[in-house]
Amino acid sequence: AQKITQTQPGMFVQEKEAVTLDCTYDTSDQSYGLFWYKQPSSGEMIFLIYQGSYDEQNATEGRYSLNFQKARKSANLVISASQLGDSAMYFCAMRSHNFGNEKLTFGTGTRLTIIP
Amino acid sequence: DTGVSQDPRHKITKRGQNVTFRCDPISEHNRLYWYRQTLGQGPEFLTYFQNEAQLEKSRLLSDRFSAERPKGSFSTLEIQRTEQGDSAMYLCASSFARVQETQYFGPGTRLLVL
Fold it and tell me: In angstroms, rounded to a whole number, what is the distance separating the alpha carbons of residues A26 and B92?
């Protein structure tokens, strides 16, 4: 079974500062993917970034980077130069690469609020 | 570039009524997923299709729930004899099957059962 743990229910960050959202995971699979999604108040889940378990380099997408530490089973999201529009719920998720186990398993999320 | 669409966006119904939701995936995607999200929680997997075949169903999907994807394009999720506990956001996602697949989500359907 797969499990995602997000221990920060809420965070407040000053605009233009960097922020790190924590995510730890548990799986017995050798090959898997880790994802971060953003959910604004409108409800839509917006894909932000992906990291494969065998990727040697940390993933980056614009202002988003994923700090992947495989031995510690952590996949923290780093947002640089935060903006007011970054205020939203953020979910960490994982998916096995084994056939027949394609579903995403999500954490409980972190509510990020950017303060002007 | 058309994303995943869902209809309706909001649904209010009385306990015991049947409801049906529709999801139109991104056109070239062959996988379609349904998730349910209750307040304060992350989405939970319900079921998924590869083309028209339903390949996995969660234990959350009781006998009152049924999903179809008749021609491998759009999908419907029906809930029969709705209960107050069915109140949630129902999210649809689609993807193209590959190792590094990414699921793209629609805007969701918010269901309120009175």
Answer: 25
- Could you read off the pLDDT of B35-47 as tens digits, one per residue? 999 998 999 999 9
Tokens of residue B28, six digits: 């070239």
**What value, to the nearest 5°, has the Cα angle with vertex A101 and ends A100 and A105?**
160
Q: Which of B41, B56, B99 sits opposite A103 (nearest CB)?
A: B56
* Nearest chain B residue to A94, by CA: B102
Model confidence over A34-46: pLDDT tens digits?
999 999 998 999 9
Q: Which residues of A78-91 are buried (b: 16+ CB within 10 A; e: fewer)?
A: bbeebeeebbbbbb
For A45, the closest of B91, B97, B110 (CB atoms) is B91
CA distance A49 to chain B (A): 9
Residue A92 contacts residue A77 (beta carbons within 8 Å)? yes
CA distance B48 to B101: 14
